[in-house]
Amino acid sequence: MIQHERIQTLKGGQPGSGDYVLYWMQASVRTRFNHALEYAAEQANDLKLPLIVAFGLTPGYPEANERSYLFLLEGLRDVQRNLNGRGIGFVLRLGHPPEVMLELARQASLVVTDRAYLDPSRSWRTWLAERLDIPLIQVETDAVVPIETTSGKLEWAARTIRPKIHKRMDDFLVPLEPRRVKVKSLGLLDGVDASDPQHILKGLDIDRSVPPGEERGGEDNAQARLSGFVKEGLSHYDERRNNPLVDGASRLSAYLHFGHLSPIDVILQAREAGGAGLDAFTEELVVRRELSFNLCFYNPQYDQYAGLPDWCRKTLAEHADDKREHLYTRAELEAAQTHDSYWNAAQHQMVRTGRMHNYLRMYWGKKVLEWSATPQEAYAVLVYLNNKYETDGRNANSYAGINWIFGNHDRPWARRPIFGTVRYMVASGLKRKFDADAYAKKWA
User: Fold this and answer.
1) Which region ranges are annotated with the description Disordered (predicted)?
2) What are the sequence ranges of the domains in the chain?
């Protein structure tokens, strides 16, 4: 079932007389539980036309590097293979994505696309809509509850958006069956063969400073990781998720970021498995994640210090001249050259593997704020490090997490130096959660 709330018309009109329906896949790089793909298949069947799925690969995506590109390409490999199994042609072409799609749309009757949450990709869809003379339909498939359905404004915190999500969540947690296409489209258009991600990667002119991380991308790996988590990790999630020495987290974030996994699919499988950690997991996957979508959709400065709430910037400004016991440059932080062995370990883990445990990510961010000459400098450093090394960087969740460091989606706490009334974190808090010394030794 594809609910009408998921569907938005970006460019209206009647379908043209083209040769196929085009699905511009950009955010939702998967064939399973993809509402945009299934909507496009329905439209192709109704028009008695073949369906073409296309992806535009640009070497110039902001802040992307070898780590993120390989993960993405591994997803495109799975998409090509799985679409071929359904008789649907997949076209991968190099170039600026909206320009690639404009060229492919010249022979199309209708264009369908998935939804993006950050400015660069959102602007691509706007650019294409302004230039098409056929309809462009956007189908939201990476949120459980569509953004505007949940709320029509910027939400203050999880406590304000939570009841709104829970009110509608079950309406959207419904199965989605794959549509059989009536007209096959294999070989209809040419493109880059996506079956060898490493080969494509070698030919791209991209930043090579960050090698691939620990996780392997693609919807098939995503499904394997999800299956293992719901069978073995979900029942202990509530008690183990804040301990980085055990594999208690779901480790699904990168797959969700690249669209290799549907959050609806995740929740449905988690509900079927059940377990003591289901409520806590749902809170993280749905409420907290979709709070970040709300932030990026309704706050045009979601990735800037100036976009923080007034109270956060005011209290930090009041303490801007407070003495800092330690000050580190961006280069020193990037190289994990601080006096804090726990912070250094978290930085090492992120650089080496492409991920950092969520609880440590909060501590990591708070310390950068404490050790920077100004909060503005701290904000810039956190965006730089997160987006460079985290496989799930350049993501709505990432920006929400960074903004939380500075007080967004939180409340004022007791006043203290440097932080004012923004929440503070200390190493003793880590030690209450887990064996912090063992963690530091592991990643030294």
Assistant:
1) 204-224
2) 1-142, 144-176+218-298, 305-442
